[in-house]
Amino acid sequence: MKFDTPAGINPIDKGRVIGIPHDRIDGAAKVTGSAPYAYERHDAAPNAVYGWIVGSAIAKGRIASMDLRAAEAAPGVLGIVTHANAGKLGKGSMNTAPLLGGPQVDHYEQAMALVIADTFENARDAAKLVQIDYMPEDGKYDLAAESLKGIMPPDSFGSPADTKAGDFDGGFARAAVRIDQRYTTPDHSHAMMEPHATTAAWNGDRLTLWTSNQMIAWGVGEVAKTLGIAKEKVRLVSPYIGGGFGSKLFLRADALLAALGAKQVGRPVKVAIARHQIPNNTTHRPATIQRIRIGADRDGVIDAIGHEVWSGDLPGGSPETAAQQTRLLYRGANRMTAHRLVTLNLPEGNAMRAPGEAVGLLALEVAMDELAEACGVDPVELRIRNDVQYDPEAGPQRPYSSRKLVECLRAGADRFGWDKRKAKPGQVRDGRWLVGMGMAAAFRNNLVSKSGARIGVDAQGKVIVETDMTDIGTGSYTIIGQTAAEMLGVTLDQVTVRLGDSRFPASAGSGGQWGANSSTAGIYAAAMALRAKLAEKAGYPADKAQFDDGLVKFDNKSQTLAALAGREGLWAEDSMDYGDLDKRYAQATFGAHFCEVGVDIDTAEVRVRRMGGAFAAGRILNPKSARSQVIGAMTMGVGAALMESLEVDTRFGFFVNHDMAEYVVPVHADIPQQDVLFIDELDDKSSPMKAKGVGELGICGAGAAVANAIYNATGIRLRDYPLTIDKLLKAQAA
What we know:
By secondary structure, the chain is of the alpha+beta class. It is built from 18 helices and 30 strands. α16 (623-642) crosses α17 (702-714).
């Protein structure tokens, strides 16, 4: 099925199951511990042995020698994989550096060997006996020091590095009010609960990986390319994933080394990347330096806006596209955005929840707050004055499919009690706490991706759905089940959902905020095909048959799904593909964040007192799981504002705080109250579901709202994240 014209009235609009806040259908399996995660597949591989990764002790250079003798003689050791015995390996197109290093070393903790033993403890202990001598080379590890060497990168996911409209320099020079500021964001770790983990087994020349991977179809292709085997001989199974945030989009070292280890020892092998190895061995969100210039009239109406971004990655890597939202969010006839990429020999930088916008809005929305103050305009009103109903770079010929930013701003402000905010900083005290309010707009592009599914009805009238879509804690099982139930006129408990297996039709996968909308659209396509088969078997016209209460109805006649399916059941398979609606219409999700903080007058400790937000993201498929996604994203925004930073040792090129003890993230006590409001919206140009993504929108702008609240509380404007106590105390003393 192809979606190339706006959606009309369709079965989803009945809203009997879709749009209802159902509990997660996978919840019981998760809370009882019966959901099988990648490292726990004792059922599938009962005789598995264990692998432990030996990571590089240098960031750049070569291996001079490797002595495995002591490790090979250690108790229980069955084999050791290195570059010398792994055979010829390719490199996945989505990996920046080889996942198994040697003799060249590309980054700190790059896998140099895998030690395989009969027990986890024996593998871990023997790995310490691997002796590697290195020939270190000088590397580049400091973004600020290297920023002048930044180059224009190639397009990233089809988005150009630089854009221009009008005359930015002239417009900025003429502006009555000008903002010109520099902002920095540090490297971030994904810090998901489940580590990267894989259990691998070979059956002849066929490989099965029970793995933690967000994108099954991508993963199959990358495994095949890296090992030099046919895709048809690779199976990935990933029914449950304990978080990913983008770190599990691509093939990682656990999967490759488990496959190589299983081949070497002739038994299934389990590999989990140890928690302390993850930040340096896998991927992270790159640090940025951002310069934002905004020129406006004295009423705050923007005429010129420019956003330049510097970030770093390994050779062949990609930039952090932090100016994306600046191209689309606010008005201004004269515009400029630019990205520059610096070569750094740090571990790979790559996608992390809302890549680009998450850190871009940390800068842009603080700059907007500074503009509001400079013009004497309320920050909410400033954003309303600069709303635009079309792509401001392309002009009115590319309108938004739907854009309810103003509604989010007004409804969110009213619900939060924004009218009680004191515009002048430092005016509100609560005992020893200075209290302030801040806000920021939220923006995230709406992306869609081809997605397929297979759907059937069995002899009992039960519905079965199969697709390789994954659930990374986002509620995919439930919204897919809801879609199937809605389309076939049954209750949710009559639907069985099977996910995360490459034997199933290829889906959009979980990433880029496209997963929910795209995968349910794929279910819609397959269900429409099945409806047609059922109607034909009943002798009813497919376009007039109704599906309700387990029946197929036409006029005053009806037949049960069970009877029509017969003893063998009835199946259909299809996918949803997309035309050019996303080119004819700008498509995005919008929101408004509000935050109240307290700052201790003596210690400068910051406490988030409450947060609220209003969001427009098309049809909300399941308000309960969508709210969970948004409050989780808002929590990550607090982490980015106040705590999170991978600290780089610029002498030796590694992240020092590489565990959960020293990479600090928010906990329950840091987030006392969060309120989420969804604005009613249907986007008929997004998909037949009339939905959009929401999982990444909630992080976009949340941290800037915290930063702006700190300024309102204290009068201290910090532009270098995270906004830690030492920075506040230093500014206080200045």
